[in-house]
Design brief:
The strands form seven sheets. Strands 6-5-4-15-12-11-10-7 form an eight-stranded parallel beta sheet. It starts with 8 loop residues before the first strand and ends with a strand. α5 (147-162) packs across α6, α16 (421-436) packs across α18 (494-500) and α17 runs antiparallel to α18. The longest helix is centred in the last third of the chain and has 21 residues, at 465-485. The chain is globular and about 75 Å long. The chain is built from 20 helices and 22 strands. 40% of the residues lie in helices and 18% in strands.
């Protein structure tokens, strides 16, 4: 593994790959999705607390140009990368699944890693996307831990490494359902032996496997090649119980569990090739992230250490053909309820996996379809009807579609087959909202008033104000009751269906305000709606406007002054 040879480059496939790699010491790091809107903002946190951590590990698309275009924090990362080194943890990189990554995508990955000087690229061993279309919430599918799963993952890993001029560090995946006869650590050890790739051990993912299998946390570590581990991950998550089984959901916004801090402290001295410890603190407020990083800093002191030299494995020269023996599409169908949970191994674990996936789908849909989703897919059965539909499956046949577009197609078919005037009215409203934001509103000049930049005005021939209000009220009521009784009483959605079927007479004026979680709809009196509609076309001098309309618009925060 570790040798003293210098870096000698040889030509292999389409790019230069070294016979050895030099892995520098990175120390303690913080993860980031490189969005200025996310917390914690790593560079601001580091400026406020110098020395709190040593590097940033960021997730972004494979292509450097795509990352530059979509990651709002990318310019600061790029500017500061010499002082704050980075590790690249990509998204859209399949290490399992029905198809190998296209060569051009891997060339983009290599160019990206080299440009930012990431000494290795780490990624979870899983099926992340279909032709660039990610599974909602980036909830990848974990391979079965058996011979078929191993063979497929070997093909994927070697295909990636063959086009990558830095090491690919293989990360143990998160686990809910038990599939295959092997322990996850045995699976990862076999994958390392077949590929020669270094290992990235995620402690929360390990806990997810141990809980699902009913094993103590440290089971399997004694025989695991800890000397091949170059990076450790620690993050937050939630442990829940379903019958006799326990499950760990890898949710980085949650607090880090105490047993994971203890496990990290015990593992660091047992990993002689360790180069980095990453805290995946996505969603933690700065003051909370600072507390965790200070605790981790005691385990990973600041300061330089000698680099490690790692030999390029000979296995990279030959990529075995990929087969479908590991049945990724069967696990997809079961995971999204297109097939019964009993159709695959571990029915109880599959149901828990479905719960998580359906919850993420509901969260995604509620950004743009909160009314229609509650009316047509407000229950688990309704959500499963959507995710098990041909429209949802088609989402993964075309990268031009989004989950919301697939849901709209499904909803329209559903309403053609079973007409429902209330749900149709809600769908009409929510299909109208995006078009309202396609036209910019003019800014007012001095002495004028104009519409706020994030506000748009619309109208419908029927009044849905009661439906908009009731959807919020029902959500609040049912959620509050769930805390008390332990069950989300979805039968309470019946009242919402009644309201949807009795819309008031129109015309109905409303305003939509753009929010992070989707447009927020507010009813306004007809006269105020007409006034705001005029402002959407041209600002008006204050003297032209009736004082009562100005006061009403200002009180709702709908207008701005020049």
């Amino acid at each position: 593994m570790a040798v003293d040879a210098g870096r000698v480059y040889v030509e292999r496939m389409t790019h230069a790959v070294s016979e050895t790699w030099t892995l520098p010491w990175r120390g303690l790091g913080l993860s980031s999705n490189l969005s200025v809107a996310d917390v914690p903002q790593p560079y601001r946190l580091l400026d406020e607390s110098p020395g709190l951590f040593d590097y940033v590990e960021y997730s972004a698309p494979l292509s450097l140009e795509e990352s530059k275009a979509h990651a709002s924090l990318f310019p600061e990362m790029w500017r500061r990368r010499q002082d704050v080194p980075v590790l690249f943890h990509p998204v859209h990189l399949n290490l399992w699944g029905p198809a190998l990554e296209p060569v051009q995508a891997l060339r983009d990955l290599d160019a990206h890693a080299r440009a930012v000087e990431s000494p290795w690229v780490g990624n979870d061993v899983g099926w992340w996307h279909v032709d660039g279309q990610p599974f909602p919430g980036y909830l990848y599918f974990t391979p079965p831990f058996n011979e078929a799963g191993l063979e497929a993952c070997v093909s994927h890993a070697l295909q990636v490494q063959q086009h990558l001029s830095v090491p690919l560090a293989l990360e143990n995946p998160a686990v809910l359902a038990r599939r295959g006869q092997w322990h996850v650590l045995d699976f990862m050890a076999k994958l390392h032996a077949r590929t020669g790739a270094p290992l990235l051990l995620d402690l929360g993912h390990l806990l997810s496997h141990q809980l699902s299998a009913g094993l103590p946390l440290e089971t399997g570590l004694d025989g695991f090649p800890l000397d091949q581990v170059v990076e450790l991950h620690i993050a937050g998550g939630v442990v829940t119980h379903r019958g006799p089984r326990s499950f760990y959901v890898d949710d980085h916004t949650q607090p880090v569990r105490e047993e994971l801090f203890d496990l990290l402290a015990s593992l660091i001295p047992r990993c002689p090739s360790l180069r980095a410890v990453t805290f995946e603190g996505d969603g933690h407020p700065p003051e909370v992230a600072r507390m965790s990083l200070r605790r981790l800093r005691q385990l990973v002191p600041a300061g330089a250490r000698p680099p490690l030299t790692w030999r390029v494995p000979a296995a990279v020269a030959a990529v075995p053909p990929l087969t479908e023996d590991s049945q990724p599409w069967a696990l997809f169908d079961a995971g999204y309820a297109a097939a019964p949970a009993a159709s695959v191994e571990d029915e109880a674990g599959t149901l828990a996996d479905q719960d998580f996936r359906l919850a993420v789908v509901a969260e995604v849909l509620d950004r743009d379809w909160p009314l229609t989703r509650l009316l047509l897919a407000g229950t688990r059965e309704g959500l499963a009807a959507f995710t098990g539909s041909k429209e949802y499956r088609k989402l993964f046949d075309s990268v031009a579609r989004t989950p919301g577009q697939s849901f709209a197609s499904w909803a329209m078919r559903r309403l053609r087959e079973s007409p429902d005037e209330g749900a149709s009215a809600a769908l009409t409203l929510e299909m109208l909202l995006p078009s309202l934001f396609t036209r910019r509103v003019p800014a007012p000049a001095p002495g004028q008033v104009g519409l706020m930049e994030d506000v748009r005005v619309g109208s419908l021939p029927v009044d849905l104000s009661e439906l908009v209000h009731s959807a919020r009220a029902v959500r609040r009521h049912l959620t509050a009751r769930a805390w008390a009784c332990g069950t989300l009483e979805l039968s309470g959605l019946d009242s919402l269906n009644q309201v949807a079927r009795r819309p008031g007479p129109g015309p109905w004026s409303f305003v939509a305000r753009r929010r992070a979680g989707g447009p927020d709809v507010m009813s306004v009196p007809l006269a105020l709606g007409e006034f705001l509609g005029m402002l959407a076309v041209r600002p008006m001098a204050e003297a032209e406007v009736a004082p009562g309309l100005l006061e009403a618009a200002r009180a709702r925060g709908l207008i701005r002054q020049g």
